Each structure stands twice: as C-alpha cells, then as structure tokens.
Structures
1.
Amino acid sequence: MIGFAAGCASSSGGPLSAPPRTASAPGELRIELVFGTGADLDLYVTDPAQETVYYANSPARVSAGRLQADLRCDAAVAPRVETIVFENALAGRYRVGVDRAQTCESGGNAPEPFLVVVELGGQRQELRGEIRPGRFLPKAFEFERPGGEP
C-alpha cells in the first residue's frame, strides 16, 4: 500500500499516457515522467535517505535508485519517458521533482504538459501537470512507501 499526496504541479488534461509494460517485481518502485517533444524535462526523485536520483546522480548510494534514460531534445521519439527504478524500495517518503531543462525547437514558450506515473506492488498513481520555460518543480508529487513486506 502506498500513501500518495500530490504536491505543487497543476492538473491539466492532455493526451499523454504511459506506454504499456510488464508487471514489476515485488518491492520494485517505478517512477516515470512522460512528456512530449516541446521541451527537455528531467525527472528527480528524492528517496527516504534524502538522496536525489537524477541524470547526474545515478545510481543512488543507499537506495540504489537508478535513472534508466535521460532523454533530451534530440530524442525524436514521442512520448518521451524518463524512468527511475528502485528494485527494493526503502520505506519512507519519496519526493518527485520535474525540471524544464531546455525548450526544444518545437516548444516555444508554451507550457509543456507532463505525466508522472508511480507504480509499486500493483498500485498505480498518476499526476498530470505542466511546466513553463525556466521552471523547476522540486515537489511535483510526494508519496509514502510504508514499512513491512514489499
């Protein structure tokens, strides 16, 4: 069971959806940031040990959280998906941040919609938001992973 609490991101509609994938292993925590081609967005996850996993700090020393891919403006695929995985998620509070690192050629000054998907133990929670140029949302989404068995 996960306790979810949304943070600072605004809700917005949009066609973004997480791509289908296979089921997670027991105890695995998967956090995905889904976005289009208008901007280079970066996913940040601060784990219960207060270490932040992102493109410049992967894997984490204590929790072993790992960023699977850092997709930039030159990644032609859409939607783009950045994923951070914790194979054996620690109990405690996790904070998800989203940074608009760069506006891509097709993006202009429009807000870039995004989708954050959190999956643990068969549970899934989603948050839709958008981010303007030059912004960093340090707490777009926050949740608690209770202790005990995965």
2.
Amino acid sequence: MKQALSFVSIFTLAFFTLAGCQQAAPSEELPPQQTQEPQIPAEVESVDLLMMESFPLQMSVNVKGNLKNGCEKLGEVLRKRNGNDFTLTVTVVEEGEVCTQALVPFEENYSLDIYGLQKGEYTVTVNGMTENFTLDQDNVLDS
C-alpha cells in the first residue's frame, strides 16, 4: 500500500511538472516573410523557333546558352506579349556555396502560345536575342 501511494505521488508530481513546461502560445501569428529574389537573366547564345506541322499551329522556342558556374540553375521563364511582340526572359538562380568555375551549357525548349493569332509577322525576343516568324493564315480552328 505504501508503494502504491508513493507511485501515485511521483506520477502526480511528474505530471504537473511536465504540464508547466509547455511553451506559451504567441499572442498573434505573424505571416511568413516573403523575400523576392532578383530575377537574373541567363546568358543566351542562340534562339531558334520551331513550328509544329499541325493545325492549329504550335510553336516551340529552342534556347541555348551557358550557366556561369556549377551553382547556377535555370529558374523560371517570364513571358510577356505586347501586340505582335513576345518577350521571354529565361532566369537563373544560385544554389550552393562551393561552385565549379566552369561554364555549364544548357538547351531548353519553351512552348509559345500562338493559338488565336491572326495572320501577320511576329517577333520573339529571348534575353535580348530576337527571331521573327510569319503566320500566312489566322491560327484558329473554324467553327
């Protein structure tokens, strides 16, 4: 009986001790900080436009270039269209602290949304390099 009473006393003491160790909840939760990293353009050496032989027409932009070192990776592609001018900005992000100091070649294809365009001449600019294409007919399906 004496052992049971001792056990209950120790258990109760331990329970209240641990209950007092909980961290107090913060009074208000702050939103996570959002840091926007600067968009660094990739070094582009060539741009080729690839038109698919289908209808409606589809286009792919083949971009070749070099990353400056082993820590750079291709980032997001920012796309804008203003009238007949398309602008793609291929960006890079830095990852890691110890990097090889050699150029790392890359080649990527990016789709270009040309569905619904009227016949005419168009310009595609990728990181300052420009290519042109012409649509001989409206790129829409007849209903």
3.
Amino acid sequence: MSTTGLSLFDRTLQSTNIWLDEISSEIGPDRAVAWKVLSTVLQALRDQLPVELAAHLGAQLPLLVRGVYYDRFDPTVLPASNRSDEEFMADIQDNLSDIRPVGAQDAIAAVFGVLSRHVSQGQIDKVRRSLRKNIRDMWPDVPGPANASAAK
C-alpha cells in the first residue's frame, strides 16, 4: 500500500528511513539527531569534493537526502581543499552544537558507513581517493552496498 500515492516518494522515504535507522544504531535512537548528523556530514563531505564528483555522489543519494545534500550548495567554492582537517572536524562539531552531544568523529563514521553500504563501491572509491589523507582515513572499512537499489 502506498503511503504517499507516488512510488518515487515512497521509495525515497523508505531509503531515508533505512539510512536514519543505521545512523541511529550508531549514535543513539533519536531520528532528529540522526537527520542532523546525516545532513551536517554530507554537506561537509560535499564541500571537500570537486564539483563534478560532488554531483555524481549526489545523484546516488535518495531523493530526500539529495535535497539536504544540496542545501546551501555553492559550486563556485569547491573543493574547499584549502581548509585543514581540523577545520573540517570543527565545522562538523559546530554544526552539531544545537543537538544533544554527538562527537564529530562518531558522526563522520556513522555517515561514511551508511554511504559505503548504500552507494556504489566505484563511487565511494572515487570519493575516498579525492579526499585528503586524514579525512580519507576517517572512512571506516565496511562492506560495499548491501542493497544497490536502496539509494534510489
């Protein structure tokens, strides 16, 4: 039975809920916090990527997640490679300051893990290779996509 009457919306809600459940299993059972963690880390990651790669990653995200990924997107400043790894972490921590305490490293690990499980392995490899070593090293080693269609 369709929840929204549009299969595209139903699929993106289902996929987004799966992603939020996975993040919640790592950072705690608050979906609002999971959504904030997901959006904060995705936007920080996006800003580290070359524009074309950022767009290719965005295309593999569930439609609802894609919306938050592109929120406040300014392609003219990508990649933000002149920022240090400490600034990357600090920006994430600052953007998480309006929710219950969640460490930036925990947030990054949870979101990078979800991406590794739901985005194609080839895309994840390209994203990882484009990141500075210290950020790339934050990416947990997790199996590839559990369900390649989950991102659609």
